[in-house]
């Protein structure tokens, strides 16, 4: 059934089909239909960041930036859902077209630029959804906020989403907001993380709960840079790392239509690079911090490989677009059948 739907959706422009698919998922959720059309995955509970996940396969940020289809997505079998990236103020993002399909490579290139309706609009939808599962909220900075003032945007978003989020993801790795990736390194990273830690302490006292903080990183770092990031995350009291965002590289897509478009490449071509990042992180962290793996999961075995590499959870996005809800169950089953899943 999904293959037919995908064939029809792929006749439309990528962004139009994305919006239509999200509308359909949302409508199915409101009508209670999504759960009837999808075989839910087997139970595979896992505890990560002090949170209880019904299974380790989640939706990555980017698909539902504004929290428009939370209930509908929750009926598809995900163990957790991450919405956003959201910024303090609404912004249109980059000029269209800004999403490009590379179907021969099971890949996408996007340069969306954090297009979203702002944090207040997202929170209104979170409240209306009344979702009881694990909900991550991914936060970023507005495009016109200078990088040297980026911390202000992150702190504002953290304050606003804190009471509603199961965990908060700090996105410092999108390649589509100028200067953003510079926040992943050195003094800039430590200053941001220290500010987030201190503000989280204040919010924990205010709300009486500790909301985990995860940092999402890029796959385009050297092993030494990854190790330095891992050290900074541990020393500043972060709770998890998400590896990885999209890549600026074009390995595996050279010569394909749209391969030279600017933006981040996701899907199958980023799989090995993302899994390598997970392995390097796992070695550097030594179990002190959990890893959430994302990037190139198109089959169940790819999810299991991420877990074997050292991840505790996985997220899908591009694979969900190409494979549909069946990928969720397939990934859960593959993880359950892997060496680590059977422990």
From TrEMBL:
What enzyme category does the UniProt record give?
oxidoreductase
List the pathway annotation. Answer: Pyrimidine metabolism; UMP biosynthesis via de novo pathway; orotate from (S)-dihydroorotate (quinone route): step 1/1
Predominant cellular place of this UniProt entry's protein: membrane
EC code(s) of this entry: 1.3.5.2
Record-listed FMN binding positions: 61-65, 85, 138, 171, 216, 244, 267, 296, 317-318
The record ties this protein, via Pfam families, to: DHO_dh
Q: Where is the Dihydroorotate dehydrogenase catalytic domain?
A: 44-333
Xref: InterPro entries: Aldolase_TIM (IPR013785), DHO_dehydrogenase (IPR050074), Dihydroorotate_DH_1_2 (IPR012135), Dihydroorotate_DH_2 (IPR005719), Dihydroorotate_DH_cat (IPR005720), Dihydroorotate_DH_CS (IPR001295)
Reaction(s) catalysed by this chain, per the record, are: (S)-dihydroorotate + a quinone = orotate + a quinol
- What Gene Ontology molecular function terms does this protein carry? dihydroorotate dehydrogenase (quinone) activity
Which terms are listed as keywords in the entry?
A: Cell membrane, Flavoprotein, FMN, Membrane, Oxidoreductase, Pyrimidine biosynthesis
Essential cofactor(s): FMN
Q: Decide whether keyword Membrane is in the record.
A: yes
- Record-listed substrate binding positions: 65, 110-114, 171, 176, 245-246
Q: Which residues form the active site?
A: 174 (nucleophile)
The Gene Ontology biological process annotation of the record reads: 'de novo' pyrimidine nucleobase biosynthetic process; 'de novo' UMP biosynthetic process
Q: What NCBIfam families does the record tag this protein with?
A: PRK05286.1-1, PRK05286.1-2, PRK05286.1-4, PRK05286.2-5, pyrD_sub2
Q: What does this protein do?
A: Catalyzes the conversion of dihydroorotate to orotate with quinone as electron acceptor.
Query: What is its quaternary makeup?
Result: Monomer.
Q: What is the protein name for this chain?
A: Dihydroorotate dehydrogenase (quinone)
Source organism of this protein record: Stutzerimonas nosocomialis
By which gene is this protein encoded?
A: pyrD
């Amino acid at each position: 059934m999904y293959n037919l739907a995908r064939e029809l959706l792929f006749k439309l422009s990528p962004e139009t089909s994305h919006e239509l698919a999200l509308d359909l998922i949302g409508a199915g959720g409101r009508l209670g239909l999504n759960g009837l059309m999808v075989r839910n995955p087997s139970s595979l509970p896992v505890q990560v960041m002090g949170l209880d996940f019904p299974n380790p396969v989640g939706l990555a940020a980017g698909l539902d930036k504004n929290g428009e289809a939370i209930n509908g997505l929750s009926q598809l079998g995900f163990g957790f859902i991450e919405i956003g990236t959201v910024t303090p103020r609404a912004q249109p993002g980059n000029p269209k077209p800004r999403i490009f399909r590379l179907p021969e490579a099971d890949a996408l290139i996007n340069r969306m630029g954090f297009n979203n309706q702002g944090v207040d609009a997202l929170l209104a939808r979170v409240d209306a959804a009344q979702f009881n599962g694990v909900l991550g909220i991914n936060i970023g900075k507005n495009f016109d906020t200078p990088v040297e003032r980026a911390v202000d945007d992150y702190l504002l978003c953290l304050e606003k989403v804190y009471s509603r989020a199961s965990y908060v993801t700090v996105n410092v790795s999108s390649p589509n907001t100028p200067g953003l990736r510079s926040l992943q390194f050195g003094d800039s990273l430590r200053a941001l993380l220290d500010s987030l830690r201190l503000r989280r302490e204040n919010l924990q006292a205010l709300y009486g709960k500790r909301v985990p903080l995860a940092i999402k990183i890029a796959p385009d770092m050297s092993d030494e840079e990854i190790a330095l990031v891992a050290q900074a995350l541990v020393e500043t009291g972060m709770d998890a790392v998400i590896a990885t965002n999209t890549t600026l590289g074009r390995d595996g897509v050279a010569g394909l239509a749209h391969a030279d478009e600017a933006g981040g490449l996701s899907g199958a071509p980023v799989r090995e690079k993302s899994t390598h990042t997970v392995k390097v992180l796992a070695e550097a962290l030594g179990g002190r911090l959990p890893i959430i793996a994302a990037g190139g999961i198109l089959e169940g075995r790819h999810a299991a490989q991420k877990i074997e590499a050292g991840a505790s959870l996985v997220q899908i996005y591009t694979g969900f677009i190409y494979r549909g809800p069946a990928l969720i169950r397939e990934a859960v089953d593959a993880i359950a059948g892997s060496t680590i899943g059977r422990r």
